[in-house]
Backbone:
């Protein structure tokens, strides 16, 4: 046996009481020679330990900074706990736990660190708080905790002769605290009276749980808490330890082991004695201890219905115990209130099964066939009961998921700050959803509910607005994808199920909606094709139940957005016209009385208006579509409708302003900004509201031109976007747009130096824009205007030249690309006419560009160009430039 293995055996044996070491060595040492060697090492180590313990005065631990040691309060397997006085940054008495000198082995230090990490996770009034941690000047780790000026819960109750109900009431907050630890991913594993102290606060007893020294992390839940259980070591105190934990090194213990210990503690409080007396190595061999823990049931405490609760908590089979500490607390609360408790007396079949398990050989010798029949019947009933319990547990979780993830968020639609509240609710329930997802049973109903919950979470995280959105498409995608995969499987098995069909269509529509935001046009087109095919494949009966025309409209709407992003203007306009006409086709009476349908119609009309504006310019058709969008939700007060109303007003204002209706455009833009700001104030976490409000503020600032209000609006947008930069899709580009508008507003009010500084700084960062030539051109365009106003014509010409170089990369398939080229040509011609240093070749080129790009454009049909809402150069301006360049 290697030296490292001998060291491991010694360290593990040292952590056991002396009486337990013999049994441990029987298992760990395979030969007498090795056992003798280990015993010799243990004697030496124990002698050294006693020496250090006897000689360890406070000063032997080393300095602890701001903590002055006053007196020893107690000691355990790892270290000593002192009362200490803290002098800074606050003055107070604390509990200071330090590893004893001479005991700082790697194993104990690691355990001490795990206790510190476990306590750091906790934030509960019935768990002693951790204040600080560090190491003494001698390198001994220490932990600074809340000083609990009390006594153990058993001593507290007995010294005051508390009645039974007061003892039960005192146990309930202990259960709640353990539940808190479990939700943090921590199993205590050593719940006993000395680790539950009770102190009086304002005259009321308050229990506090201490000592997480042997706590265990639930795998994958509590980072930094890995490790803690070694093979062959019994963790915990036998009188309070569960059967599964009594097995040395048991690694599959879960939170239910703490339920058993809570039951043992409550039994001690109720009966005045331990559940199993003399359960220690002073009275039993190790083998006898294990047998008693696994087989012997405690006698009734004599407390009526409380005995039923104790029996359920102390079940040997953990699947039959309370499954959570909260469930135990709830039954105790019902007991105190005189209500029926969930725990009941053990059934006859259960007693027979336990009897048969205990005396199976004797019974088999008398009547083998009868026992087998009885066992079969008994197990059948037990299995049915356990399956029913499992179904009830799953149903309870499903109810949590349904209410918290699906129903409650929908009821938040009119509540202020609904997006943040919805996100908190979702986060609280995701643990329950995760448990349901891991359910091994293939239950289609359960799977459908999981799919619905995943979709709800995806909609809350992604770019949705009707029920609140966090504006994070990447975080939303895994949930929506998972929901869609489940619905695809379920609807394939039951194609005539209308609920499953609608669930799949909802998930597919959400998945399609994400693709433009994730810049995945290929997947978006595939999803649009699948949505159209699925709707058209519905049977007439299912089609009537799922509002097929709405899903067709959604498919065309999102497809048009994808086509527009690929510069397919004609196709995009066609798809958006279909989105409107399909939705209104064969419209039943009262169809548009529903707010959700009003919101969708406004959305479709507004997207049609935007596509027409960008591809054909501001004309009557675009303006009419925007007005219809405004009217569709004019009488709907729900937040989703108000959002579409504000959005449509903004688009209408853009179109009006671009077509020369300046006063009307400014008025509608201002109304849109005001409405969006009101929505954003109600729901600050809704990214859609805050982004849209900032965008409309930009257009209003540009429309207002050189005014102090324009500067204020632009600065506000920059401030808001800078705070959220990186959290939004294309966040840096949005911030760049706001800064371009700020530069234009500053120049418009004569603050040329400030405008130049803002635009120059932005231009230096353009490498991070992934060559967004629209924004580069917009920045240089405004910079050239600022130089022109200052009379710096050389700089104006240089900026205009760079702007033209960016403009040649802009697609001219849409009218906005042609107008942008025309403006870039106009800027270069103006700069060449101003600057005396322009060469004849510069002037000739500028004149040629005017001829090429400024002819045939209607100045009344403007559009959104880069960061600007504007139209092409007026013919008179172009003619004047030609004359100046010809001189």
Residues:
């Amino acid at each position: 046996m290697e030296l490292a293995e001998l060291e491991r055996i010694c360290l593990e044996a040292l952590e056991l009481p002396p009486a337990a070491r013999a049994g441990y060595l029987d298992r760990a040492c395979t030969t007498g020679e090795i056992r003798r060697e280990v015993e010799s090492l243990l004697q030496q180590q124990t002698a050294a330990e006693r020496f250090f313990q006897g000689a360890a005065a406070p000063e032997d631990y080393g300095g602890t900074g701001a903590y002055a040691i006053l007196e020893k309060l107690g000691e355990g397997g790892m270290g000593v706990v002192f009362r200490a006085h803290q002098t800074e940054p606050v003055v107070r008495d604390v509990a200071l736990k330090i590893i004893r000198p001479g005991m700082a082995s790697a194993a104990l230090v690691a355990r001490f660190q795990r206790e510190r990490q476990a306590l750091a996770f906790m934030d509960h009034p019935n768990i002693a708080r951790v204040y600080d941690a560090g190491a003494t000047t001698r390198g001994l780790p220490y932990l600074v905790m809340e000083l609990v000026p009390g006594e153990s819960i058993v001593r507290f109750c007995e010294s005051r002769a508390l009645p039974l109900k007061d003892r039960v009431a005192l146990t309930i907050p202990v259960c709640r605290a353990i539940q808190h630890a479990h939700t943090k991913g921590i199993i205590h594993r050593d719940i006993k009276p000395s680790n539950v102290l009770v102190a009086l606060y304002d005259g009321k007893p308050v229990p506090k749980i201490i000592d997480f020294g042997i706590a265990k992390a639930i795998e994958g839940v509590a980072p930094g808490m890995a490790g803690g259980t070694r093979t062959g070591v019994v963790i915990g105190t036998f009188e309070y330890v569960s059967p599964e934990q009594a097995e040395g090194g048991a690694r599959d213990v879960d939170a239910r082991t703490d339920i058993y210990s809570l039951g043992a503690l409550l039994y001690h409080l109720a009966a005045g004695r331990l559940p199993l007396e003399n359960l220690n190595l002073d009275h039993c061999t190790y083998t006898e201890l294990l047998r008693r823990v696994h087989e012997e049931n405690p006698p009734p405490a004599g407390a009526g219905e409380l005995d039923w609760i104790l029996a359920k908590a102390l079940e040997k089979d953990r699947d039959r115990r309370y499954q959570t500490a909260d469930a135990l607390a709830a039954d105790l609360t019902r007991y105190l209130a005189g209500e029926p408790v969930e725990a009941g007396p053990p059934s006859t079949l259960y007693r027979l099964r336990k009897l048969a398990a205990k005396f199976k050989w004797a019974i088999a010798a008398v009547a083998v066939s009868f026992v087998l029949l009885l066992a079969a019947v008994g197990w059948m009933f037990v299995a049915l009961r356990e399956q029913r319990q499992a179904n009830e547990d799953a149903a309870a979780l499903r109810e949590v998921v349904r209410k918290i993830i699906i129903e409650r968020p929908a009821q938040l639609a009119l509540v202020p700050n609904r997006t943040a509240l919805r996100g908190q609710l979702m986060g609280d329930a995701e643990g329950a959803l995760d448990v349901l997802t891991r359910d091994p049973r293939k239950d289609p109903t359960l799977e459908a509910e999981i799919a619905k919950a995943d979709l709800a979470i995806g909609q809350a995280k992604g770019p949705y607005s009707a029920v609140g959105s966090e504006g994070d498409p990447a975080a939303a995608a895994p949930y929506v994808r998972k929901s869609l995969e489940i619905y695809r499987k379920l609807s394939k098995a039951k194609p005539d199920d209308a609920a499953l069909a609608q669930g799949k269509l909802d998930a597919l529509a959400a998945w399609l909606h994400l693709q433009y935001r994730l810049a995945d046009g290929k997947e978006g087109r595939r999803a649009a094709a699948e949505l159209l095919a699925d709707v058209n494949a519905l049977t007439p009966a299912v089609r009537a139940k799922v509002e097929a025309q709405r899903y067709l409209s959604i498919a065309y709407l999102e497809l048009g957005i994808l086509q527009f992003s690929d510069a397919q203007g004609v196709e995009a306009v066609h798809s958006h016209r279909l989105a409107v006409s399909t939705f209104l086709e064969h419209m039943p009476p009262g169809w548009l009385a529903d707010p959700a349908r009003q919101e969708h119609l406004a959305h479709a009309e507004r997207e049609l208006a935007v596509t027409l504006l960008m591809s054909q310019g501001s004309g009557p058709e675009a303006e009419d579509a925007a007005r219809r969008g405004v009217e569709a939700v004019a009488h709907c007060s729900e937040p989703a409708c108000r959002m579409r109303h504000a959005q449509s007003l903004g688009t209408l204002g853009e179109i009006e302003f671009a077509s020369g209706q300046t006063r009307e455009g400014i008025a509608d833009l201002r109304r849109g900004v005001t409405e969006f700001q009101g929505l954003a104030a109600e729901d600050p976490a809704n990214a859609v509201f805050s982004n849209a409000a900032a965008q409309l503020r930009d257009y209003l600032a540009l429309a207002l031109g050189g005014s102090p209000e324009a500067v204020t609006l632009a600065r506000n947008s920059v401030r808001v976007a800078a705070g959220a930069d990186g959290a939004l899709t294309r966040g840096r580009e949005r911030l760049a747009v706001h800064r371009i508008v700020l530069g234009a507003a500053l120049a418009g009010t004569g603050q040329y130096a400030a405008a130049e500084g803002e635009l120059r700084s932005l231009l230096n960062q353009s490498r991070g824009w992934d060559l967004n030539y629209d924004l580069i051109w917009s920045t240089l365009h405004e910079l050239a205007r600022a130089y022109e106003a200052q009379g710096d014509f050389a700089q104006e010409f240089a900026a205009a030249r760079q702007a033209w170089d960016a403009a040649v990369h802009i697609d001219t398939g849409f009218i906005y690309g042609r107008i942008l080229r025309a403006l870039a040509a106009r800027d270069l011609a103006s700069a060449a006419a101003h600057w005396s240093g322009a060469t004849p070749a510069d002037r000739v080129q500028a004149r040629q560009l005017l001829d090429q790009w400024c002819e045939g454009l209607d100045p009344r049909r403007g559009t959104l160009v880069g960061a600007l809402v504007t139209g092409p150069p007026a013919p008179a301006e172009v003619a004047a430039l030609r004359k100046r360049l010809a001189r």
Observations:
- The two ends are 103 Å apart (CA to CA).
